[in-house]
Every structure is written in structure tokens, then in C-alpha cells.
Amino acid sequence: MRSPAPGERPERSSSTRRSLRRHKAARPVLLLLSLVLVGAVYAALAPATNSAAEGATDAQLIAKGKDLFAVNCASCHGLNGEGLAQQGAPALTNVGSAAVDFQVRTGRMPAADTGVQAPPKENTFTDDEIAAMAAYVASLGTGPATPEEDQYSPSGLTAEDVARGGELFRTNCSACHNFKGAGGALPNGVVAPSLQDADAKTIWEAMRTGPGQMPVFASGAIPDEDVQKVVAYVEQVNQTPSSGLTLGGLGPVSEGFWAWVAGIGSLVLFAVWIATRGARA
Ligand code: HEC
Ligand code: HEC
Questions:
Q1: Is the pLDDT assigned to residue 11 strictly greater than 80?
Q2: Does 157 sit in the ligand 2 pocket, CB within 6 Å?
Q3: At what angle do helices 159-172 and 224-239 cross, to 10 degrees?
Q4: Ligand 2 neighbourhood includes 151 CB (under 6 angstroms)
Q5: CB burial class (10 A; 0-12, 13-18, 19+) of residue 277?
Q6: Which of 107, 194, 221, 222 has CB 3.0 to 4.6 Å from 123, enough for a Cys bridge?
Q7: Cβ(166) to ligand 2 under 6 A?
Q8: In whole angstroms, what is the distance from residue 267 CA to residue 32 CA?
Q9: Could you tell me the distance, in angstroms and rounded to a whole number, from the CA of residue 208 to the centre of ligand 2?
Q10: What is the distance in A from the centroid of ligand 2 to the CA of 125?
């Protein structure tokens, strides 16, 4: 550091230095901020993949997916995903990559049998193979894309959000899955599975793609923020240890039953007590 020369006016020199310092720091900070801004805007506006480099790997991924599909899926869904009526297998032209990711990750597809609800089982494909088949099916038409983590992750939600998720769950899901997500039987031997082990991504994909008898909950009806609240609610229910008497997780019905037993029971005991005293008197 150079101290001001005797002739220099110290005031001016220090203010110049100050503004220079501000300038020096401001530039990289401004650059960084605008980069972050551009990144955020890009992430918000850009479709999942659209750069030229990604386009090239996309084509490879789709080609790989097509090969895997021909071997594992085409016998029921047709070589071009058009669906084969004699196998009872639907067309996959507009189901999107999310449906493939859901069906294969949960082991439902490739189905072992036709005509019945395909049960979840151990998935034998790698993540890359699933991504490839999903990319191939997505290339056949439209449909929801496999979600990014920020679409389904419930991190950072408040207790209020979780409560709202509970409301949404009771309104939209509990009729089939039970209010604690314990699952339930539907007509014609169909089962709405327990959600005990369902992770956030699986919940998002199930809602957006509506597997089997489950309805589709489109983003117009339940936006991603609300799906995250539903996820948070399901996770909270799953993490809450069911200590002691769980009442079968059936909620108001069995809780009411126990209230009834305890309440009426004590009234009966009280009446018996009065009666015995009355008899003695
Ligand atoms: C044995 C026949 C069979 C095979 C093999 C099979 N599927 Fe399926 N697939 C079905 C049937 C039947 C359904 C309808 C199930 C339902 O509605 O519950 C179905 C449904 C699906 C769906 C859901 C469609 C929708 O509307 O949401 C996807 C996605 C799917 N299959 C992907 C695949 C993929 C990918 C493979 C290969 C890895 C595969 N399937 C292999 C018979 C098959
Ligand atoms: C009309 C009944 C019905 C409603 C309402 C319903 N589901 Fe489902 N759900 C099902 C059925 C049936 C399946 C199994 C589909 C299959 O195996 O093909 C399922 C599957 C799922 C799965 C996959 C579970 C797994 O382990 O693979 C999740 C997650 C799920 N539902 C979440 C929800 C959520 C969250 C809601 C509310 C927003 C909801 N469901 C509403 C019937 C329903």
C-alpha cells in the first residue's frame, strides 16, 4: 500500500481507492449474479433436453431403448408401442417417459402375464436401461416426462404444508389407499397397494400417469407444489412409529369404536355400581 504523497489531497485519493475497491468486487459479483440468473431462467424455461450435444446422446439413448423395448416389451405392446389387443396391452404412444419409469422401476413391467393387474416385483433393469426405454417411449408421442428431483422432493416444507398434504390425501387418495396409505381392495380383484414403501418419485409418477385403475392427477388439477405436500404427508405417516395400539390404522372408524367401548363401558360400570348400592339400600 502506498501512502498518499505529500502533495496529494488525501480525501480524493481515498475515495478513488474506495470506488476502485467497490468496482473490483462488484464486477465478479455482478457477473456471478447474472450467471445465476441466466441459469435459473434457463432451467425454468428450457425443456428437459434441448442442446445440440444432448440431442445427439438422446438419439443414441432412444436407439438403445428401442432395442431393449423390442426384446422385453414388444411382444405385448407391439414393436412401435402401438399396443396389441390380443395381449390386452395398451398403446404406449402417449404415456410419456414417466409411465415407463414408474412401471419398470416398480417391477410391474415387463408384465409376466396378461389380463391381470401386474404386481410389483423386483426390477431387473439398470437405471440406464430404464432411462433408455423411457426415452424411446417418450419419442413415440407426448405424455409426462420422468420428473426431476425438485419436482417431487418435499424438502423444506412446513408443518402447515404437510397438513395441507393430509387434506389433499384424504380428498383424493384415501378412498382407495386408506387414510394412512395402508392400501385396500377394489372391485374385481384389483388392489390399491400400501404406500408404506412408496418413495417421492414413485408417488409423483403414480399421480401423473394413473397406473391401472388409479386415476390421473394432472398438473392442472394438482400442481407439483401440492404433489410435494402429498408426498410429505405420506412420508410423515410412514415415519411415524406405530407405537402400542395402532387401532389397525383405520382411523375414525376404529377410534370411534374404542371411544364407544370405553365410554359406554364406563357408563355401564357406573350403572352397575349404582344398582348394587341401590339394591343394598
Ligand atoms: C406380458 C405382456 C406385457 C409385457 C411383456 C409388457 N407389458 Fe406393459 N403392460 C401390459 C398390460 C396388460 C398393461 C396394462 C396394465 C394395467 O392397466 O394394469 C401394461 C401397461 C404398461 C404401461 C402403462 C401404460 C399406461 O397407460 O399408463 C407401461 C408404461 C408399460 N406397460 C410399459 C412396458 C414396458 C416398458 C415393457 C417392457 C420392459 C412392458 N410394458 C412389457 C402388458 C405387458
Ligand atoms: C380409484 C382408486 C385410487 C385412487 C383414488 C388413488 N389410487 Fe393410487 N393406486 C390405485 C391402484 C389400483 C394402484 C395400483 C395400480 C397398478 O398396480 O397397476 C395404485 C398405485 C399407486 C402407487 C404405486 C405404489 C407402489 O408401491 O408402486 C402410488 C404411489 C399411489 N397409487 C399413490 C396415490 C396417491 C398419492 C393418490 C391420491 C392423489 C392415489 N394413489 C389415488 C388406486 C387408486
A1: no
A2: no
A3: 100
A4: no
A5: exposed
A6: 107
A7: no
A8: 73
A9: 11
A10: 23
DSSP string, 9-37: -HHHHHHHHHHHHHHHHHHHHHHHHHHHH
Can you give the pLDDT at residue 134? 98
Residue type, 206: A
30 has a pLDDT exceeding 90: no
**Do 162 and 145 form a contact (C-beta atoms < 8 A)?**
no
Res 252 pLDDT > 60: no
Instruction: Count CB neighbours of 46 within 10 A.
Output: 10
Question: Which ligand sits nearest to residue 98's alpha carbon?
Answer: 1
Query: What is the percent of the chain with per-residue pLDDT over 90, rounded to a whole number?
Result: 62
- pTM of the full structure: 0.76
Q: How far apart are CA 137 and CA 102, in angstroms?
A: 13
Q: 94 CB less than 6 Å from ligand 2? A: no
